[in-house]
Design brief:
The chain has about 450 residues and is of the alpha/beta class. The chain contains 15 helices and 15 strands. α3 links the parallel β2 and β3.
Length: about 450
């Protein structure tokens, strides 16, 4: 392996390790006892779950006597919504879920989980139909999710049919929803139907209404949790994969020392893995698998030119590492599909402005030096090999080495693969280019 390629591998490994050891300062602030506020804002995902679990533990350790969960979300993953619901419902201190803007989809489950539910004027709750992509989820998933909503509502002595109607369009609430339409309630409708306990404007109003201890502090996501949530977003993940794949391919396919494209590509991959590890989607094992795949690809491209077992195993390991680091297989496949499509476009555009392609020069002996142009072959004896027979010393994919007329010669086929040990014969000598084909016997 060339010295430059070793430098690339070392640089990549150090970059990934550096990214993974980054950490954010934990949330700080004084205060014990009283009422603590935990803000649940944005997508409901693994990063949000880890934040709520961490914040709740911090509040309890700080002696919180009550907790208000501020909710503003359009929803997210069902499994994470259930995990956060469990934190709220199983709380050892009184809880109030305060909808400050919207509690849509998975957010509606969280809003119903507290001892009391409060909505600010102008807010909404409901529209919790489970979906897979742009399509409604299967009947089994809809039934399961509707049952979750019904159960938590009834546990808090609220109408289970209304909660289930948030997710199941077959359930009709007269005067509020029609058959075939899922239910969404305004703050006043929720209050009328007993799905909320009050319409209030501020945290102070909530504390006064339910006679909670004095306000102490608000817990929000720290730097690491914010970065994790942003980097693990499906759109951002797809963009990072696109830039990462394109950056590495551009460096491979263009001549010259390791430059800005490769650096940006490696940083993008590092951010993808760091974000998903911080979000709790995967462990360091996914990074190890990815790095192993990258090493196999480097070996295939620069040590044994062509494409064989190492190349196939390398691609499989890289893809497996990305899937492993993702919250779900569908998430990974969607991100990979978008990333690959975008990278193809970026690579195609970049190659329009690059005249030299390192890999192609390694795979195909394309140099032609004609006597008419003033070139003289470095080995004047090559023409004497015309018509000679020999044996392939290495696999020819299509380039490799062969033994012809008792000498070792670099050769190339017309595009066919020829395994090591096969009988060959020289069919053309073009300057430095010795072309061979398979022969019988």
């Amino acid at each position: 392996m060339k010295k430059m390629n070793v430098k690339r591998l070392v640089f990549f490994s150090l970059l990934v390790v550096f990214s993974l050891v980054l950490f954010a300062l934990p949330a700080s602030g004084a205060g014990t006892g009283g009422t603590w506020v935990i803000t649940i804002k944005g997508n409901i995902d693994e990063a949000q779950t880890l934040f709520v679990q961490r914040a709740y533990a911090e509040a309890i350790a700080g002696g919180a006597q009550a907790i208000i969960f501020e909710i503003d979300t359009l929803g997210g993953y069902l499994i994470d919504a259930i995990a956060i619901k469990d934190v709220i419902y199983d709380s050892t201190v009184p809880t109030v879920c305060f909808v400050t803007k919207k509690a849509i989809s998975a957010g509606s489950l969280l809003a119903l989980a507290g001892d009391n539910t409060v909505m600010r004027k102008g807010t909404t709750i409901g529209a919790a139909e489970p979906r897979l992509g742009n399509e409604k989820a299967d009947e089994k998933t809809v039934s399961y999710w509707a049952a979750e909503l019904r159960t938590i509502a009834e546990a808090r002595e609220r109408r289970g049919d209304i909660a289930a109607a948030f997710a199941d369009s077959d359930i009709v609430i007269p005067g509020y929803s029609k058959e075939g339409k899922i239910l969404t309630l305004t703050d006043s409708e929720a209050l009328d139907l007993g799905m909320s306990d009050a319409t209030l404007d501020t945290i102070d109003d909530v504390i006064a209404k339910f006679e909670l201890p004095a306000y102490v502090k608000t817990l929000t996501k720290n730097l690491q949790e914010n970065i994790a949530g942003w980097l693990s977003n499906p759109i951002v993940a797809a963009i990072l994969l696109m830039i990462g794949i394109a950056g590495i391919l551009i460096e491979i396919f263009t001549a010259g020392s390791f430059g800005v494209f490769g650096t940006v590509g490696l940083i993008s991959f590092a951010l993808f893995f760091a974000g998903n590890i911080w979000a709790g989607n995967a462990g360091v094992g996914s990074v190890i698998l990815f790095v192993v795949g990258l090493i196999l690809l480097i070996v295939e491209l620069f040590v044994t030119p062509g494409f064989g077992v190492a190349g196939v195993a390398g691609i499989a390991a890289v893809f497996a590492g990305i899937v492993w680091a993702s919250p779900s297989v569908s998430y990974a496949l969607t991100s990979l599909a978008l990333g690959l499509a975008g990278s193809v476009v970026l690579v195609a555009l970049s190659l329009r402005f690059k005249k030299t392609r390192r890999v192609w020069n390694r795979l195909i002996l394309s140099v032609r030096q004609e006597n008419e142009s003033g070139y003289i072959s470095a080995d004047a004896t090559l023409p004497s090999l015309m018509g000679q027979s020999g044996v392939a010393l290495t696999p020819l994919r299509p380039a490799g080495s062969a033994k012809i007329a008792e000498r070792r010669v670099d050769v190339v086929t017309e595009g066919d693969f020829i395994e090591a040990g096969a009988a060959i014969s020289v069919i053309a000598v073009e300057g430095l280019r010795v072309v061979v084909k398979r022969t019988d016997g």
